[in-house]
Design brief:
By secondary structure, the chain is mainly β. It has 2 domains: 513 residues, Methylamine Dehydrogenase, Chain H (7 Propeller); 71 residues. The protein has a 5-stranded mixed β-sheet, with no helix packed on it. Helix 4 packs antiparallel against helix 5 and helix 5 runs antiparallel to helix 6. The longest helix has 18 residues. The radius of gyration is 24 Å and the shape is globular. The N and C termini lie far apart (56 Å).
């Protein structure tokens, strides 16, 4: 595949190091041991569960999948178990596409209470990150044993060139979900750990893939132009070096077979010196903050950073084309990127944090004014939610975006400790479309799924969870939720070792039935959690009721007024659905008379929007 000329991109902001700005004492708390999730009994498929605001209503048992291997899938040997591990998800219509080290699987979720395996595609190559756009599926491949033809027989050792080896992004035609076929295979220098779909609001004829390769470099005789350079604190200015960049792949939708790399984006360069390695250059052996905290704070982790916060690629990038921004979680830094020209991304700000071992992934708020970054301390294969681990380690860092700059607000971490036989750390998340609030659902591996409100990013709080006991109470076995994503009314949990969970949201003190119903009115044709599209809510009675609940909760609508407004709205809805439809509008007009624009504008707007449909 032809490679583009290398470019050093414009950079308009320097790095903000959070160490001096954080009120560190305020974030030195430990998780609470007074929690229903503490002490759950273990078991691969019969573990005890604890839930709040979530109910398991569907499950696909991984033992029913051809990708389950009784000899290795539940092995305490991580290297063996990961060979059949489930990974991330994308959604199209009534289907989940679920990545796996062996390829990918397609589940029919038309009945969410009974997800069924429709198709499995054997095509080994690593964690198999997936993104979907129309009839195209983009699939990450990074292992040196992966083949162009998807064969399972492997290749020559990685230190020997092999024309049969494939490491990069596969593009599949999934117009027939029963028979996907490969239409392109874009080779890259370090393979593809994650790939991120980026749409161009100004050009619907093509999409872009931001490729993040985190693995070793290819043999130079295998992929010409792939040149490595050792990690160093010395400035690196040689533009021929392929480290310290991400690959931008252009995909013409009318001819995806012509997909090609069009840019190697230098997102980490020093704007003053031009050094390609211009961001965090932490070297091997540097100590994690746990090493200088109270005695025993690191255990069972080691004292050194792992993985290493050294910024030479991005682990993942979340793109939000409608606001012209992306957020890069780039090993040693979180970066804010201008993607107004998606073929030519430009870094506009960067932050670092000594509490973060590995900037892993990111999510924007729906309005694009906030962003959270996750820290995958331990790489996802170790227990990093122990009772002695501070809530600022292996956590989310929440930021506000102010005049194009990232301003730290707070941390959020799973508040319940997990055992030392449960791999646990912050992982993949996405928005739950509760109108008027910013709610996130997030996977924490064997810490389960946590749902939290970060409307006020300085004061995030948990509002729901689903957690199982450890796969094994005596030894650590890789498992837990890789991702927890809301899609069309349910939360889907991609369980590494156990299968696929389907959860319903249930009312709690912090989330009402009306808010859940309003969220369910958002129905998507397809969904990639980190290729964001702005969520909007159509006029509806559930939206009105959810807004009443929120105004009553925060005290801006008195209880007696709320009761009156509910009454008018309920009568209006009954009329709207029956033969007296014309009587609905006067009831809503009566509801409006109870409100004032200073305190209740969102509710006034919601009522007026429904009236306009009557």
């Amino acid at each position: 595949m032809p490679r583009a000329g290398r470019r050093s991109l414009a950079i308009t902001a320097s790095v903000a190091l959070l160490a001096g700005a954080l009120p560190t004492a305020a974030f030195a708390q430990l998780p609470s041991t007074d929690d229903p999730r503490v002490g759950l009994g273990g078991g691969a498929f019969d573990a005890e569960t604890a839930t709040l605001g979530m109910e398991q209503t569907g499950f696909f048992d991984k033992r029913e999948s051809p990708f389950f291997d009784p000899a290795t899938s539940l092995s305490p040997n991580v290297a063996a178990a990961i060979g059949t591990a489930n990974s991330d998800m994308a959604f199209t219509g009534d289907h989940v596409i679920h990545g796996n080290w062996r390829g990918f699987q397609i589940y029919d979720i038309s009945d969410p209470s009974n997800p069924t395996l429709r198709t499995e595609v054997l095509c080994p190559g690593g964690q198999g990150d997936v993104n979907v756009h129309g009839n195209l599926l983009f699939h990450s491949v990074e292992q040196a044993t992966a083949r162009v033809d998807c064969g399972a027989q492997g290749t020559l050792p990685g230190d020997q060139p092999d024309p049969e080896r494939f490491r990069g992004v596969r593009i599949w035609d999934i117009s027939d979900l029963d028979n996907p076929f490969q239409v392109a295979a874009v080779q890259t220098c370090r393979g593809s750990h994650t790939n991120r779909l980026v749409e161009d609001p100004n050009d619907p004829t093509r999409v872009y893939i931001y490729n993040n390769g985190t693995s070793t470099f290819r043999h130079p005789d295998e992929e010409p132009g792939c040149t490595d350079h050792p990690l160093t604190t010395d400035p690196v200015t040689d533009e021929n070096v392929d480290r310290w960049q991400i690959e931008v792949i252009e995909v013409p939708l009318a001819n995806p077979a012509a997909a090609r790399i069009v840019n190697e984006a230098r997102l980490f360069a020093d704007e003053e010196t031009g050094a390609l390695n211009g961001l965090n250059n932490t070297q091997s052996g540097a100590l994690h903050p746990c090493a200088t905290a109270a005695e025993g704070s690191c255990a069972p982790a080691g004292a050194a950073y792992s993985p290493l916060p050294n910024t030479n690629t991005c682990h993942d990038i979340t793109a939000y084309p409608e606001i012209g921004l992306a957020a890069g979680a780039c090993q040693g830094n979180g970066i804010l990127i201008d993607i107004s020209d998606p073929a030519d991304p430009v870094r506009i700000d960067a932050v670092a944090d000594p509490n973060f071992s590995y900037w892993h992934s990111a999510n924007f708020s729906n309005d694009g004014t906030k962003v959270l970054f996750t820290d995958e301390w331990g790489g996802g294969t170790g227990p990093r939610c122990a009772a002695n681990h501070q809530l600022s380690w292996g956590a989310n860092a929440l930021f506000e975006i102010v005049d194009g700059k990232l301003e730290f607000a707070s941390y959020y971490k799973l508040p319940a400790p997990q055992t030392n036989t449960e791999n646990c750390v912050a992982h993949q998340a996405n928005i739950v479309p509760v109108p008027g609030r910013d709610v996130i659902v997030q996977a924490w591996y064997q810490g389960g799924i946590s749902m939290f409100d970060w409307t006020d990013p300085k004061n995030p709080f948990e509002i729901g969870y689903f957690d199982r006991g450890p796969i094994d109470e005596e030894v650590m076995i890789l498992g837990g939720h890789w991702s927890g994503y809301w899609y069309n009314g349910n939360v889907f949990g991609a369980e590494i070792a156990r299968g696929l969970d389907v959860l319903d949201l249930t009312p709690t003190d912090d989330l009402t039935a009306n808010e859940i119903e309003a969220a369910k009115t958002v129905q998507l044709d397809e969904h990639n959690a980190m290729s964001m599209r702005m969520i909007t809510w159509e006029p509806s009675f559930p939206l009105i009721r959810a807004t009443i609940d929120q105004l009553a909760r925060d005290g801006s609508l008195a209880a007696n007024k709320a009761k009156q407004v509910y009454g008018f709205v309920e009568r209006a809805e009954r009329f709207a659905d029956g033969p007296q439809r014309n009587a609905a509008k006067p009831q809503l007009q009566n509801a409006l008379k109870q409100l004032n624009s200073a305190d209740h504008q969102r509710l006034i707007d919601a009522i007026n929007d429904v009236m306009a449909t009557l």
